[in-house]
Amino acid sequence: YGLSDSFALRGSLAGGPLAGPDGLVPGGTASVGLSYVFDVLRYVPRLTLAGGARVGLSRKISPHVELALDLDILLSRTYSVGPFVRISTFGIGEGSLVSAGLRGTYRWGYF
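Predicted structure:
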């Protein structure tokens, strides 16, 4: 959600296998944060700081903080694709998670 030309409110959901003491376990995160857009051209670098919750196989919910760097490659006013790198920390002594990948975005309403 655009707050200004440079700042936006963003939400994120992620899930997948996480390393645990007994091997890989399913887990996921949900977060909401503030994004800063460096420039609005065809290639749009974005830095996001977010906070949210993490849940694992034990169904224990714990807070997490996420720092993300994304690159939006605008295909149209509605669609974009691009790579991302995210670092999530789960609290003191809980460890961190680095994730990277490709994502697609669909925008509705005013861009």
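Summary: The mean pLDDT is 78.
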